[in-house]
Amino acid sequence: MTHKLMILPGDGIGPEVMAEIRKVLGWLESDAGIAFDIEEGLIGGASIDAHNDPLTNDTLEQCRKADAILLGAVGGPKWADVEYNIRPEAGLLKLRKELDLFANLRPALVFDALVDASSLKPDIVKGLDILIVRELTGGVYFGEPRGIEDIGNGQRRGFNTQTYTTSEIQRVGRVAFDLARKRSNKVTSCEKANVMESGKLWREEITALHGSEFNDIELEHMYADNCAMQLLRSPSQFDVIVTDNLFGDILSDEAAMLTGSLGMLPSASLGNPGSPGLYEPVHGSAPDIAGQGKANPLATILSLAMALRYSLNEGQTADQLEQAVQVVLNAGTRTPDIMAPNCIEVSTAAMGDALISQLQKSKAEAA
Ligand code: IPM
Ligand code: MG
CATH number for the 103-270 domain, one of 2.60.40.10, 3.90.120.10, 3.40.718.10, 3.40.50.1820? Predict the structure, then answer.
């Protein structure tokens, strides 16, 4: 069986980290007997430069036909002045919306070897393993009406709409509860029910869903601001956090930093059964370090592991990839973002090479 992959390197460090993914895919083909049919396309600024459009319909259609989509990153100062509706980020939002990728899984996992890279004390983050499930196709990101309007007297008014329906809340809630069942059986649902009607509805619908389908799981409700605070105070109280699009955007960046570096965090965006998943690192395009070989490719490599697990039914290979990442980190191999005393600083490409050698070594040991 051949897996159809669509690769969208995007902007900034996207192409560099994606080059390392190509190496890993090459190894999986030559040494693990997994067949891929790979196509590559443009997204974000790269697509604006070529087509004056951050995601063309042709590329979108190619994505629709794939089993999984691997994305690098979008955006950068070069496109700061393009028209708002064709900015680089609009390409990513269109992809998420068009493919109905409503559940964004963002694990924050602290690897033992990186416990000192966290800005929190080691005893607070050691062994940390939380999963943020962010609603990705609704809320204020997509709500109408939206805009900037003139209201006279030299004044303007900017506005967006936060909206959620019962079914939008239920479907992402279901994903969170299902995942909690495979983990530590706890879901924390975050909103601002004390301020927003959409948050009140969110709380009521999650409570109802819990009562009807998931009462074996522990459910806790938390205001999003309190959650931001608790993530710093005692992050290990959490297992799965489910929240809306905007709060999820913010809380997942915060959770990412608990692990030491944004350069380590993968994500998966999942839709309805049968539609392709989108896999991307949580970090952005990092234009300040683009092209210098400083980027950490591990977030993208771990995103590939999630693709193998959630879209390609290659869970065992996903485990192998994640184990190889751990061994490489334990050996002290570090890109600059996670560099520590007595470790060896390597480039993006050398990190990819170290991973391939480790995969090779494990294969030889298993034989
Ligand atoms: C993310 C990013 C995106 C978002 C941007 C690039 C549009 O911050 O995936 O978290 O806000 O969703
Ligand atoms: Mg973000």
Answer: 3.40.718.10
